[in-house]
Design a protein that fits this description.
The structure holds 2 protein chains of 2 kinds.
Chain A: E1 4-7, E2 10-14, E3 19-25, E4 32-38, E5 45-51, E6 56-59, E7 62-67, E8 72-77, E9 86-92, E10 104-105, E11 109-114
Parallel strand pairs in A: 2-11
Antiparallel strand pairs in A: 1-3, 3-8, 4-5, 4-9, 6-7, 7-8, 9-10, 9-11
Chain B: E1 5-7, E2 10-13, E3 19-24, E4 31-38, E5 42-50, E6 53-56, E7 65-71, E8 74-79, E9 88-95, E10 106-107, E11 111-115
Parallel strand pairs in B: 2-11
Antiparallel strand pairs in B: 1-3, 3-8, 4-5, 4-9, 5-6, 7-8, 9-10, 9-11
Classes of the chains: A mainly beta, B mainly beta.
Chain lengths: ~120, ~120
């Protein structure tokens, strides 16, 4: 089955700096790669995703890149702000025909943005 | 604002007791997931259902855990007997099958279980 590895487990940056979180997946059939943000004591929420037919996607200060050949994908946050502090999870799934199938999550990255 | 509803939010119980957690998916969502979150393991998939039928429960310890969907508005996760190592936050999430598919999972607030 799918296995997702995520690094680093913790990341501390100064406000305004960039943050990068990296993930690798094992199953070449996976075609959907979302990122979820979980604030302390809250539920995970989707912040951005990418499908295997594109290499990069951007939404304001966050961007994701995907390298299908190497089976890795990354989350980039620019101009970090204290409210970006949270745990970030990457995930991988095989979604076909309109179905949302099981997401396998990485172990999470605790991002701390220092003011 | 449609949300996934989970009960109880917090549960403290003693080892050996039965625990039942409940989830109401978003109306119209036909795919329901149960995840367990611990500090060491992150978000582990326990089981998931589509149209109330179990599709995969390979992540669930079969001897003490069971998951069901008695109807489209209720999913349950039961632990019997509970053990201290089951202490975790249990999340339910729901999703919809449609074209185009966003793939988004909508999580509930979680049920925090402590087994003494």
């Amino acid at each position: 089955g799918e296995n997702v590895e995520q690094h680093p487990s913790t990341l501390s940056v100064q406000e305004g700096d960039s943050a990068v979180i990296k993930c690798t997946y094992s199953d070449s059939a996976s075609n959907y790669f979302p990122w979820y943000k979980q604030e302390l004591g809250k539920r995970p929420q989707l912040i951005i995703d990418i499908r295997s037919n594109v290499g990069e996607k951007k939404d304001q200060r966050i961007a994701v890149t995907l390298n299908k050949t190497a089976k890795h994908f990354s989350l980039h946050i620019t101009e970090t702000q204290p409210e970006d502090s949270a745990v970030y999870f990457c995930a991988a799934s095989m979604n076909y025909g309109g179905a949302t199938n099981k997401l396998i999550f990485g172990t999470g990255t605790l991002l701390a943005v220092q003011p | 604002d449609a949300r996934v509803t989970q009960t109880p939010r917090h549960k403290v119980t003693e080892m050996g007791q039965e625990v039942t957690m409940r989830c109401q998916p978003i109306l119209g969502h036909n795919t329901v997931f149960w995840y367990r979150q611990t500090m060491m393991q992150g978000l582990e998939l326990l089981a998931y259902f589509r149209n109330r039928a179990p599709l995969d429960d390979s992540g669930m310890p079969k001897d003490r855990f069971s998951a069901e969907m008695p109807d489209a508005t209720l999913a349950t996760l039961k632990i019997q007997p509970s053990e201290p190592r089951d202490s975790a936050v249990y999340f339910c999430a729901s999703a919809i099958v449609r074209q185009p598919n966003t793939g988004e999972l909508f999580f509930g607030e979680g049920s925090r279980l402590t087994v003494l």
